[in-house]
Predict the 3D structure of the following.
Amino acid sequence: MTVKDLETKLNFKPLNKVTENEIDGAFISDMLSDVMAGAQAGSVWVTVQTHKNTIAAANLVDVPAIIVVRGKKVPEDTVKMADKVGVTVFGTDLDSFKVAVQLYEAGLKPVG
């Protein structure tokens, strides 16, 4: 699956440029330290966090995309930083559990 597939097949709303990077797993956490210790390169990160440090953490572990759940608004400075480092940010009104089910049904394995 690619980051673009999250938009076209799973209907998540992109908030910035959508890449064609491969995704092979999913990681769900709202703690940055969890992501830095447990996420794997090439996994999508599902979270409610919207501040710029989420982008730094994603970039550190080579996470190509973040899905922000529960309709949380992502600040413009976070979106700009994501564009600079090539991390796609999606938004959805769904909660983490429903997103996890969709990702699992699409074939992504849980990581961490």
About this structure: The chain has one domain: 3-110.
